[in-house]
Backbone:
């Protein structure tokens, strides 16, 4: 589904991603962990098409298409979703209104008729129940004055509404209370199918108790330096990133 | 400071959204010219022209005298065209303008059915049907093309309730006492340069009179259209709401695309007596000129209302997207005790447009309240200024004012300016002013893009969000139009 080869990208002459290789197949859940500033959000942004970053090397293929040639809205149209680490606020634009526009723009991209008010409302009610999200929040201006947790839940709610093929969730678990983490995990698990995939960016092993990943990768200083299974996350939790650094140092001195 | 959040069903704009989505982001789409024969005065301005206009309209002697007085005053001012506004334009050659142009119709229509089909088609192209049975929501329309009103719908139905809604020309003939009593009672002919000019040469406009205790059952609306070349449009609107009455009035305007500038100098006067309320909404979409700033309308308008009676209310709502230059300050004189004045404005400038707009709230009575919400959106190389005055007189005990001026910038070559003036002569008053300036963030656009929304639509969503508090003041039928207009007028302003 997603194939990243030797991806190098940076900003203002500074290289942040230094050759990423990653393949995600339909039906899989991958987790990326790594210390602050290692490039996790940058990777997510580059995949989603944020133009601030310049890609200097490598390629990204999504659903068999060259992703780097596409505008961000087309990537979304192809089924890519990014749950933002820091969701933005748009004053005066109701959350419902925003989501309705998004749903219908994606339908348009796929050549489908827009949902009418009734059908949209039905879909929304269904997902609201799933995500345990209340109407008043959705009537408010998009993310404006939302608590940290509310913003994250709103991201997951949007994911549920948009039903993407690949969802990249950038620290969606940060700032969530334990009940909310369960709800988010539940939502992600419901989305899981043999046709979909999820890329979780997280600092906490805790989330991975609820969403069992097939693969765990460690991103360090712009490179994926270690990949493994769920056990790798546990090991990181126990030992911190130091043991990775030590491994790396050994590797470099050899 | 956080904008208020509205949740009532009326204000939920979900259903309109599809209109934004569908909006074909085209250039100015009202720029066509209708090929109709016109009855015109020669260009130029002198006493003969004024006599000509007055004679054309078969006006009584007092009206001609009034015009001549205004003209003489204007002639004395001629060297003093106001220069204080934050706008720039080359000198206007008042002698090259045609001050009277009327579409030639074979006979004066007795009813809307008799209107020249070509004229009818013009209005249909603009999305305005003059056929009463075709009007969706019961909006009575007065249509003014160049200098004259070509017909008013729903006249009879309104007449049964004692409501007068007709062209100014007809009002002068049929209701001379009312016109004489109220005309220039709010905006004196000596008020300012453009008001004096308007008084001398105005050719038509709308007149509304709502009798005591009557709630006008439909929106009254006037649609102004400049068609002929080298003409100016000078209309005069007068609305009188008697004790305990209510009226909501809408005004819309467009003009063909032309390379030369055209002048529009209107005067609007509102009078609200005890317990009366007037709600006046404008969607101004005069031709703004092309992307290089060539052509477009000079829009110099004086709008003022007086809350003459106790507990009366006047509310101005404007969505200004057109004109090369806008110079306009809809104001309220709060004379009656407990009266309320409101001003809600969205002004959009793009390319080389200039707008200097705002309001004046004059608190004279006791316990008077005013509220100002101004949203300026600038893009391209444009300049957008808010200019407002809150004046609290010595005897205006317990006056309250709240002003909020927000500016939104698209790009870094445009300007937003705020000139709030506050004069308080009574220390029991409370005057609050808040102002913000923001830019549409790349992050906001990217967030929308990531959800499948293209940049053009994203900007439309963001600016409609920004302007929402004002848009919510518009009657429903107008709000949808206005939303589309915002999107269209900012087309091409994001990279
Ligand atoms: N727009 C930008 N301008 C300048 N530097 C940037 C920008 N985006 C990212 N960086 C830098 O690139 C590095 C990687 O940042 P990134 O946000 O990808 O880290 P992260 O792994 O997501 O960290 P965290 O766990 O704290 O979220 C950091 O040093 C950051 O300062
Ligand atoms: Mg990050």
Residues:
């Amino acid at each position: 589904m997603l194939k990243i080869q030797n991806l190098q990208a940076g900003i203002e002459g500074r290289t942040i991603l230094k050759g990423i290789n990653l393949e995600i197949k339909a039906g899989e859940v991958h987790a990326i962990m790594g210390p602050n500033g290692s490039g996790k959000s940058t990777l997510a942004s580059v995949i989603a098409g944020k133009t601030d970053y310049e890609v200097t090397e490598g390629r990204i293929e999504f659903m068999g298409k060259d992703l780097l040639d596409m505008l961000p809205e087309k990537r979304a149209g192809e089924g890519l979703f990014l749950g933002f680490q820091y969701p933005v606020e748009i004053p005066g634009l109701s959350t419902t209104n925003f989501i309705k526009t998004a749903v219908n723009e994606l339908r348009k991209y796929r050549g489908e008729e827009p949902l009418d008010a009734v059908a949209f409302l039905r879909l929304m009610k269904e997902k609201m129940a799933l995500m345990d999200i209340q109407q008043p929040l959705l009537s408010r201006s998009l993310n404006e004055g939302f608590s940290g947790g509310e913003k994250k839940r709103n991201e997951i709610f949007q994911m549920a509404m948009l039903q993407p093929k690949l969802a990249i969730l950038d620290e969606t678990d940060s700032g969530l209370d334990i009940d909310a983490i369960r709800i988010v995990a539940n939502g992600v698990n419901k989305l899981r199918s043999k046709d979909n995939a999820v890329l979780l960016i997280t600092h906490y092993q805790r989330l991975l108790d609820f969403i069992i990943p097939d693969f765990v990768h460690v991103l360090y200083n712009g490179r994926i330096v270690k990949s493994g299974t769920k056990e790798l996350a546990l090991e990181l939790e126990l030992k911190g990133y130091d043991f990775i650094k030590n491994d790396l140092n050994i590797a470099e001195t050899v | 400071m956080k904008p208020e959040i509205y949740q009532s069903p009326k204000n939920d704009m979900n259903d309109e959204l599809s209109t934004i989505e569908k909006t074909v982001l085209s250039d100015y789409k009202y720029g066509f010219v209708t090929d109709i024969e016109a009855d015109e005065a020669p260009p130029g301005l002198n006493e003969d022209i004024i006599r000509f206009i007055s004679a054309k309209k078969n006006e009584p002697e007092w009206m001609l005298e009034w015009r001549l007085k205004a003209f003489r005053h204007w002639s004395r001012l001629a060297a003093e065209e106001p220069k204080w506004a934050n706008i720039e334009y080359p000198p206007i050659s008042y002698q090259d303008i045609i001050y009277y142009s009327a579409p030639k119709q074979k006979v004066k229509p007795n009813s809307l059915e008799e209107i020249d089909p070509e004229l009818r088609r013009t209005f249909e192209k603009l999305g305005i049907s003059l056929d009463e049975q075709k009007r969706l929501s019961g909006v009575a329309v007065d249509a003014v093309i160049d200098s004259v009103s070509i017909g008013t719908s729903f006249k009879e139905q309104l007449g049964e309730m004692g409501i007068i809604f007709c062209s100014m020309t007809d009002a002068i003939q049929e209701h001379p006492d009312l016109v004489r009593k109220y005309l220039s009672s709010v905006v004196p002919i000596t008020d300012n340069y453009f008001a004096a000019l308007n008084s001398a040469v105005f050719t038509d406009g709308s007149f509304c009179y709502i009798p005591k205790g009557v709630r006008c059952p439909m929106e009254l609306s006037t649609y102004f259209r400049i068609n002929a070349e080298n003409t100016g449009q000078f209309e005069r609107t007068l609305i009188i709401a008697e004790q305990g009455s209510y009226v909501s009035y809408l005004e819309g305007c467009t003009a063909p695309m032309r390379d030369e500038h055209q002048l529009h100098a209107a005067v609007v006067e509102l009078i609200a007596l005890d317990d009366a309320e007037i709600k006046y909404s404008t969607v101004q979409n005069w031709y703004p000129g092309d992307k290089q700033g060539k052509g477009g309308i000079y829009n110099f308008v004086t709008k003022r209302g007086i809350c003459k009676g106790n507990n009366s209310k006047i509310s101005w709502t404007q969505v200004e997207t057109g004109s090369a230059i806008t110079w306009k300050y809809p104001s309220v004189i709060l004379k009656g005790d407990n009266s309320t004045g409101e001003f809600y404005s969205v002004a959009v400038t793009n390319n080389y447009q200039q707008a200097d707009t705002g309001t004046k709230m004059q608190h004279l009575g006791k316990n008077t309240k005013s509220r100002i919400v101004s949203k300026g959106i600038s893009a391209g190389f444009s300049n957008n200024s808010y200019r407002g005055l809150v004046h609290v007189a010595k005897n205006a005990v317990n006056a309250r004012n709240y002003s909020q001026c927000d500016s939104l910038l698209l790009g870094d070559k445009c300007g937003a300016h705020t000139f709030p003036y506050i004069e308080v002569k009574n220390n029991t008053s409370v005057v609050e002013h808040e102002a913000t300036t923001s830019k549409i963030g790349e992050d906001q656009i990217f967030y929308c893009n990531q959800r499948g929304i293209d940049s053009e639509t994203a900007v439309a969503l963001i600016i409609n969000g920004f302007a929402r508090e004002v848009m919510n003041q518009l009657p429903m039928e107008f709000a949808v139009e206005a939303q589309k207009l915002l999107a269209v007028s900012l087309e091409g302003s994001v990279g």
Chain B is about 25% helix and 35% strand. Residues 1-26, 132-138 of chain B have pLDDT under 50 and may be disordered.
